[in-house]
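yo

u said u wanted the structure for the complex thing, so here. seqs first:
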Amino acid sequence: MTDLALEASATLGGLGALRNPDAVLRIPHLPEEVESVPTDDETMIVNMGPQHPSTHGVLRVMLELQGETVLRAKPVIGYLHTGMEKTAEDLTYIQGATNVTRMDYLAPLFNELVFSMATEKLLGVEVPPRATWIRMLMCELNRISSHSLWMATNGMDLGALSMMIYGIRERESVLAFFEKVTGLRMNHNYIRPGGVAADLPAGWRDDVLRIIDAYPARLADYDTLLTGQPIWHQRTEGVGFITAEECIALGVTGPILRSTGVPWDLRRDSPYLAYDQVTFDVITGSYGDSFDRYAIRLNEIRESLGIVRQILEKMPTGDYRVQDKKVTPPPRGRIDESMEALIHHFKIFTEGFKVPEGEVYVAVESPRGELGCYLVSDGTSKPYRLHIRAPSFVNLQALPHMMAGGLIADGVAVISTLDPVMGEVDR
Amino acid sequence: MPSAAPGVSLDDPGGTDSDGAESVALPPEMFGAPLTFSRGQLVVHPDPAGYLAVMGAIYSDGYRMAVDLCGVDRLLAPAADLPDGVAPGRFEVVVNVVSIDDRRRLRVRVQLPAEAPRLPSLFALYPGTEAMEREVYDFFGIVFGDHPDLSRILMPDDWEGHPLRKDYSLGRIPVQFKGTPPPR
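structre next:
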């Protein structure tokens, strides 16, 4: 770092800066108002995004620069806001999963999972073991595909263009399996309150084995391609540094928190589904820089592959959805022979099922951190209030603190390793 | 095998063991505010005046991370699950805090009146609530005192109204784009 950068990070970085309102650039973001803000001649304010290839969607960052050094930054969001929390209040619990799955579009199954778990908790319904394990299988594969795409885009942002092709290839192999199981590559609406939409198709075991057998050797290749490469080290080591105290104060979770050495992973620390019956390591870093965040995601793919292998061994037989007539529609075969089953089917899909009054907060570990769902029911068949605690939304607050004192070119590495998904940030 | 000691966490995000949690002896108060159980999860109900003091006590008790802060408009369904002595209000602010060291979770629910809903900001205590409080202000019009930058975060700056309020009419407001040229 240059002397200037050291000085800037000394005055603007650190834990005290979190509670200093001036550590974040706070200027109005309408152009006509900006011109009235006095700036001295040494600094200038540059706008990055919302249309910028490295911002992964429509993220806009306002940067206060002194030469090449970022003094302060301000993320401006909302460009992808579509009012999904409001929409959710108009959809029944059965339709709800189709809405939330579009939030974090790189890890849609986690959104469906957290919504379904919140609904089931309000209902007091316990899903059968096979449904639980299918959910775990799909979520871990989704974590692999999400981290693969992250490796692809991160490589692209830092100039390792071949990594982009490889990462997307790996993701595609998982998405092909998702398409076979759920019918769609993304936005599956597969995990629903009460279980999953359908049982795994014939031959699923071979498909999964093909994915997890091919992956480790390729991961070793990517390790050689990136981890051992001096340019990669120089672009990522010490860049976008953050401490554990800062992460906790800012509510930052997921790989960013773990990169600072805090072993906080909800799969281990408050086990949901059947994560207490599989073994895996929680990967942590020690420096909290971009390289640690890269290494953590790389190794989390390895851990997920291990979890998937254990799931293959332990997958129980039985129902894939709860046999509670209030929640689950009758099987297709019954509809042809029974008028009552037809009425029942019609009622569930038009009116939905009623959920007892109450409020509940449920959290799962998504690839980006703690994905929470705060659900309030007023006893009808539609949620009274659905709030999704999106990890990217909260993690994005760390961006000004991670960028402060760094170079503008490193800002791209910081945004990339923060891994925000704008669909989830803006909801 | 990861060593999550069983029974450490009162909250059980995925399970359905609310029956088990009901049997835990429950003090009527925690941090000087009434305490309830909701589906096995601890909920504290401070009044708006004592909100900051209760949050300070919660912070001192080890809950160092505020994972979530959101609003609820109770216009159509006043909260029925409140303890004695807590009057339901039109708005509710819900804060979820976590203690990472001993894996505990806690929820704080504050009732706010329909007229000029206002709370002190948690920014000095939990800097991470900054964006969440902006979101609540944006969607519900709840004002957080001493917030460093209380402005709209997801809706456009010139938007009128607070769209997650229950009396905000749906589908009757034309789509507003900034700088749209007038029709010919």
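The CA atoms of residues 4 and 103 of chain B lie 9 Å apart. Chain B touches chain A through 55 residues (CB under 8 Å).
cya
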